[in-house]
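BUG: 3D viewer hangs when loading the predicted structure for this chain

Environment: internal workstation, default settings.
Expected: structure renders.
Actual: progress bar stalls at 90%.

Input used:
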Amino acid sequence: MSADALNWDCIVVGSGHAGSCAALTARDSGCQRVLIVEKSPPEWVGGNGYFTAGAHRTVHGGLHDLLPIVTNVAPEAAANIDLAPYTADEFTRDIMRLGDSRSHPDVVKALVDGSRDAVQWLAERVNVPFILAFHRQAYLVNGRQAFWGGLALSVEDGGKGLIAADRAALDAVGVETWFDTAAVELVADGDTVVGLQVSRDGESITLRSAAVVLACGGFEASRDLRSQYLGPGWGRAKVRGTPYNTGDGLALAQRVGARLTGDFAGCHSTCWDANAPDDRGDRVLSNQFTKSGYPLGLMLNAEGERFVDEGEDFRNYTYAKFGRAIISQPGGFAFQVWDSTTIPWLRKEEYADDVVEKIWGDTVEDLASKLVEKGLQDKDAFVQTITEYNEAARAFQAEQPEAKWDPAVKDGVSTQSSHLHLALPKSNWALPVEKPPFLAVKVTCGITFTFGGLAIDPETAGVVSNATGKPIPGLFCTGELVGGLFYRNYPGGSGLTGGTVFGRKAGREAAKLSGAAR
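Structure tokens produced before the viewer hung:
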């Protein structure tokens, strides 16, 4: 192998969105030779980013601020859109409240402060085809598209479109990718990382570089590490995305003295189709296995009991924690249930006939009987739970007839009235489930990524040494491997934005180390 093939200005481990942002920024900042090392084959390019909906949470000034970077809003349609500004304070509060105020404030600030510039860069430099997410984050209410939950941006064709844009931008500037190449060991000279040992085509190769960026995700695809950190029941969780995120970055960094931080017992896990593949995502259906329509209905476990407040908050503030709730239920699965009042509000991309198995019933009793063969253990309890829920929902309606159901706001339509309330409420969107036909879908826990990771300097994305508390020269981190950002829960759309923000920081610092910064 030639000397040129062994020497690089920047090496990025991982071909996902975060790694792509780091590699492109390094190249744009002056690095002439940038290499992405990816242990998957080419057909698995894109890491977990490929399996997302492409949602990016960002600070913004409202509709007028986002219209210039989206491609799916005609001028005449804009007049019928309600999209409020989303401030830095709101973004920060969302991360902190969902994480029990445990998230590292400086890392959160770096993400929030860098978010708007990050999506502008993606739109202008990477040509990411951003759209307003009418299909995911808005409801048509009284003739107007009303956005909710602080999130508005998605990407045309979701993660597939995002990764396609990333790859086109990288190819255009000559960033090279080595597929089927595993990162084996960081090469250090004293306390400084100076390269990376890889395994390629059965050969061990030592590469030299002034900067190595770890962007190879967490450990969600490792059954053993899930059981070790998350608990023994997590062995049965289904992997939503790439099967190649098995904790490599953590192991590599630990061997050079990196500091671990964050919620190693926590992860992003959601309601996932019980019939989805076990150990990897589907490259065709991708994020369509998500089943996020529970705020419109109910979720019951195998024993016929509700176990979460389906209306606790907007879906994008609860979906990343409800997978954990499901996996703790008997059998690790649950049933989502609706009646014909709310079925039309379900997203077709998740609940179309050719996407998910549907179980129908003419009555709640009929539905319960059919669910027995799908795992329901107590059909009488199932019927009783829905009966009691309906009584409580009707009691609220009778007491507060002025309360109007509105899925685009937290409408306060609940199961709690002065003379009848449930021990486990449904706090919003609590319509009776009483109008036939009735629909159920079986769901389980789909794990997306893990929250524990590496400590970083939020200004540089440099990986912090456990011994010194200072960044390890030459070593950087971005994406799902960043620790200390999310605890217990997660505001939807923050991950891809964070990968962009910290990937750009890492890329700029890599150029400085290579002596090529401009």
